[in-house]
Amino acid sequence: MPSPSSPKVHSTHLSPTHTFTKSPSPLLLIPNHGILHNCHAGPTVQHRSRLHIHPPPLNLRQVHLLSLETLQEPDIDVPPGALGENITMRGLDLHGLRKGVRLHFLPSNKDEEKREKREKEEEEEEEEEGHAVVCIQGLRNPCHQIDKYRKGLQEKFVVRDPETRKIIQRRAGVMGTVEVGGEVRVGMRIRVEEPVEGEGAGEELECV
Question: What's the whole-model pTM score?
């Protein structure tokens, strides 16, 4: 059984059009594609600022994840989905993850208990249900649209060197690709799988 502090899904959001803020909705993840009915789904990049690139690069931005704890900071204080993330999570330091980390979205404890009770009553053995898996690819770069939502807010998502004023950390969430499809719902538990070696896995996250 997971500890009470285990990472969980706080809320989920999508938009079929390129609106900045996304609306609450359960998510259906599709492998190597993204989120069903979401504007950023596709095997190649869908963000409008990069549609001019030919040939189009691979879409490493299929799923945007952001921490609830970041949104609740006093100088930020915005509701989930307002900044366009698909999954708002709690209990996990997203910016401390490495490239290639896999996030497994598992049923909540309540769902697990219901399933175990059903299996016991039916006296049947069932294979473990499949579940969605997102592979972390990089950081979201805090863009100017954040300032359109609220003037001065963009700067709250970066940390600068006090002397040079260069950005040394970005805090607007992370981007990932869908490795295994499945549903993502509010209350789901999240299991973190460290990356396997090779192909840049385990490197520090950079903007994608």
Answer: 0.88
How far apart are alpha carbons 29 and 37 in whole angstroms? 10
**DSSP codes of every residue in the chain:** ---TT--EEEEEEE-SS--SS-EE--EEEETTTEETT-TT-SSB---GGGTT-SSPPB---SEEEEEHHHHTSTTT---TTTT--SEEEES--GGG-BTT-EEEEE--HHHHHHHHHHHHHHT---PPPP--EEEEEEEPP--THHHHHSTT-GGGGEEE-TTT--EEEE-S-EEEEEEE-EEE-TT-EEEEEPPPSSTTTTPBP-B-
- d(C-alpha 125, C-alpha 132), whole Å: 22
* Residues 6+ away with beta carbon under 8 Å from 61: 40, 45, 46, 47, 137, 140, 175, 208
Kindly report, residue by residue over 148-201, the tens digit of the pLDDT: 999 999 999 999 999 999 999 999 999 999 999 999 999 999 999 999 776 667
Q: How far apart are CA 18 and CA 161, in angstroms?
A: 33
